[in-house]
Design brief:
By secondary structure, the protein is mainly beta. The protein has a domain of about 90 residues: Lipocalin, CATH 2.40.128. Helices cover about 5% and strands about 45% of the residues. The protein is built from two helices and 35 strands. The strands form nine sheets. Strands 1-34-33-32-31 form a five-stranded antiparallel β-sheet, with no helix packed on it. The longest helix has 15 residues. The protein is globular. This is ABC transporter.
Amino acid sequence: MVISSRTTGAITAAIAATALLAGCAGGGDDEGGTDAAPADEATPHGYVEGAEETAGTQPRLVLAESATGRAAVLDLTTEDVVEIENAGEVTGMHQDGRFAYLASAGEEVHVVDGGSWTVDHGDHVHHYRAPAHGLGSLPVGGPTGVHGDASVTALTLDDGSVHLLDRAALDDGRLEETGTAAVSAGAAAVPFEGGLLVPTAEDGTVEIRDQDGGATTTLEERCEDARGQAVTRRGAVLGCADGALLVTHEDGTFDGVEIPYPDGTGDAARATAFTHRPGSDILAARAGDAGVWTLDLAERTWRLVETGPALAASTAGDGATLLVLTEDGVLHAHDSADGSRTASAPLLSSPPQDDAPAPVIETDTTRAYVNDPAARTVYEIDYNDDLRVARAFELDFAPDHMVETGR
């Protein structure tokens, strides 16, 4: 595996920053190292044996090449690369915050521990890092959606079946299924606040089940033809035929709030997949050939930014730039308040082929990451500085698929 960065001194600075974080973090290893939390301190929330708690996020990118199945984890702090056992031909990739799920043409899902994760307790968070490695495979078809919380990860397959994996077992390096469920065509199951949101029928019924798949209750509000899901601090979001359904939880009760599209929105422009920075309450989604939607969960409103057809879009949240990668390989920045374009920069070496997976945009609080398979490169973008390329990670394989873990 070969990787280079065109940023002078980045590795030295990153290593120094890592050392500083380790020195400041509660529960972190001292110079001698340890596999457990100190005996005289309370075990931190979310701690896993062998992990190191850090003072900040430890973002990593899990990357895979479609044709060869080569997979690797790129540590964005140290710039180290860990190659993972070959997964065979890769047809898709998802993540649940810590683990990546690589679908192979051989009807298997290979699970990769990205080795970094964040535990969010609302008023504070804990960050951890550990070695990245492959975890094994599951004998199931490719998932169309993967969503997880501290207790369970739900893999929804293209046939509508849902496989529920025990999260504690995953943290310990074991693949253990705890239950199953089934969703309507195009939908996905979403763990949320101790329950499991399951869109179950074309009439829009959304069930709240136990996290082993057992049915418990049904939301009063409906979500017809559910497609696209996200979990935020304001609640879980389901994309529906006529807009979005925001599911909230308070005092043990689940409630739904409908957020309809603006009048005149046709089916071709509906949002079917959401992207956002974890912790943000602003979502982005492609709007067919019209452009890109932003969904503000605080204001409960949609805004259409008319960019034309887009390959990918994302935003870091309230007041942050909306990033849009158009089909010509140009990255654009838009003001999130009024949708106006503020910067543009040619980025991709060539537009992707029709049968190739589209590039993605992974967004952090100050940086965004875009994969360019044709150039075998991942770009780190400073979107607050006219889309400046801060680092370019040059690989010896094509990063056709990319997800970020550790957030």
